Every structure is written in structure tokens, then in C-alpha cells.
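Bcr/CflA family drug resistance efflux transporter structure dump, as promised
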Amino acid sequence: MSKIAAPTGSAPERVAAPSGRAALGLLVLLGSLTAIGPLSLDTYLPALPEMTRDLAASQAQIQLSLTTCLIGMALGQLVTGPLSDRWGRRLPVLVGVGAYALLSLVCALAPSAPALAAARFFQGFAGGMGTVVARAVVRDLYAGRAAAKYFSRLVLVFGLAPMAAPALGGLILRLGDWRGIFVALTVIGALLAVAVAWRLPETLPATRRATGGLAATAAAGRALITDRVYLGYALTQGLAFAGLFGYLSGSSFVLQDVFGLSVGAFTLVFGVNALAFVAVGQLNARLLDRYDPRPLLVAGLVIGLLAGLGVVTGALLDAPPLVIVALFVLLGSLGMVMPNGTALALDRHAAHAGTAAALLGGIQAVVAAGAAPLVGLAGEGSALPMAVVMSGAAAGSLLVVLTLARHR
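C-alpha cells r here:
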């Protein structure tokens, strides 16, 4: 196992994990920070068909705004993670959520599809700053099974975003147009900035912060990318997230345009799938009392692959019920994959949790960013492109965890 020495001292000071109401408040706040991603991606999903008409753009051009947002999130995490190892956790996330609120307003004013895609890149960058710090805070406070259980509990909060986001987007569409969705994200970002300033503790004391400037940061990065097992878990997460992103970018077109579901029915299906993700995440927390994270991760990936094959079969047979049921199982399996994969990756590099979380999030976002163009460019009017992307990602993630992330 590749390790990085602690930045200062042999027994650096650690912040004790909170308890009682403080612990619950921190869980909700960290869950809200990690929910910036799904809020940014899911809230405007019901509006994608309307946006193609309003901005006189193709499906692929509008889906590009999903990809640019995700790439921005990747870069935001890659930049902010190492900085949080040097400057502490609070300052970077405060700057990030504040900028997110302002850039969401810029998205609301975008006059064209290319301008929207550009604005979404910077919005994603700012959102990624908060997401990566939230993961690092968890690793500052917990390790091993405890970290995996905490990430599973975060799913309870994080998973509410995919359920609430499309419903919020659909409600706004009933009252106005798609631009109002980004105004709502502006308000959410501003409220998050206030909550962070008020409630987020500093979990990285000065005695544990990295020193040595860019050379030390580069050394930490080299240690991470040469750690085969860490890289394997990161790629596993990236491929699993690519399957999820294929669903996010394609589901509104498949379920509404191909299968003829109304906005309300699509919102219901989307919310039920998110509920499966949350429920399995809580089941995973219970199972961690008896099992280690790795076998649970592998089990989740196997179930996801079988469900992905079910989505392909339903698409080939033009059977909407089969597609919807298989999507439910596949999205649920990610509630077991995401917490365990994250904990297994971050557990290997506690001394540079911010950098490790940044690379993990960056790999996730970069790998997943290719899913939306594949779904859009492979053709319209069929569920098969989305099905192939999701099942292929499931197969790739299982292959990587059994080979590259295999422990010796």
C-alpha cells in the first residue's frame, strides 16, 4: 500500500468527531454540499426538451451543458482539494459556494446554447470546490468502516437532491420557464454560503496542514496516481458515475420523447429511482456492521451489471416497463457502490485527504463527462444509446475493481 507521510509531526493533532445535534447538523450540511452536483445536473432535466426549442439548439448541444458543468466540477475539485490540505477546509468551501450562487445567475441570463455551456463550466467549477471539501472533512474525522458508514449516511441527504431537483424544476416550469430554474439555484447557493459560514467547523488544524508548496503537492499527486489500488477504486467510481450520468443526460428524452411520459410521470419515475439509491445506501450502512466495504462494493457492481443488461434488453424489445424496472435496480445498486468505493479510495491517503478526494472527484467527473455526448450523438428516438452507455459503464467498473483494484 502506498502511503504519504503526515505533513508535520509524528502524532498530529486531530479534531474529534462531533456528537449529538452537532453531528446531525454537520451531516446535513456536508450532505447539502455534496448535493450541489445533483442539484446542478438534475434540476433542469425536465426542461431539456424545452431548452432545445427556446435556444434553437439540438439535443446534443443542450446536453453539452451537462458535460461542461461536469468538467468544471472536475477541475474545481482538482484545484481546491490540494489547497484545502494547505489552507484548511473552511475558506475554500466558502469561496466556492459563494461563487456558485453568482454563476448560477449568469446561467439564467445565457442567450444561447454555447453561452449556457460556457457559464455551466464555471458554475460547475465553483460547485466542485464545495463537494471536494465535504469528502475531505469526512476523511478528517473518520476512517475504515466508520468512513464508509458515514458516506452511506450522506447518501440519505445527498439522495434527496435527485428526488427533489426534478420536482422543483417541473414546478418552476409550470410557473415560468427554464431560466427560473437557475434563479432557484442562485438562491440555494446563497443559503448554503450562509450555512457554511455559520456551521462548518475547521477539521484540519494547522499542525496537520501540508507544507512545501507546489513541490509537495506534486509529490502527493504522484503518490496517488502510482498507487494502483487507489487508482483502481477511483476509476471504478468514475465508470459507475458515467453510468449514472448517462441516465441523467438521457432519461428525460427517453422517458418523455421515446416512451411518451408526461413531465409529471417522468418526475415520479426519477424520484422513485432516487429513493432506491437512498434506501440501498441506508441498507449498506447496516451491512457494514457485518461485512467489509470491498465485498459490498463488488456485490453492488454485479447487481448493477445485471440490471444494465436488463435495460439493454428492454430497449431492444421496446418494452418501457422492463426499462423502468431495470433502471430502478441499477440506480439502487449505486447506493452500495458509491459509499464503499469512496471510503476504500480515501482510506489509503489520510495525510492528504483533500488531494485524494480531489483526484477521486476529478476522475469521476472526467470519465463521466463522456457519457452525455455518447448518449446524445448515438442517435435520437431510441432508448438503446442510453442503455448501452449504462450497461457498458457497469461492466467496466466491475472489471476494474476485480483487476486494477485487486488487493495483493
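Confidence is low (pLDDT under 50) at residues 1-12.
lmk if u need the other ones
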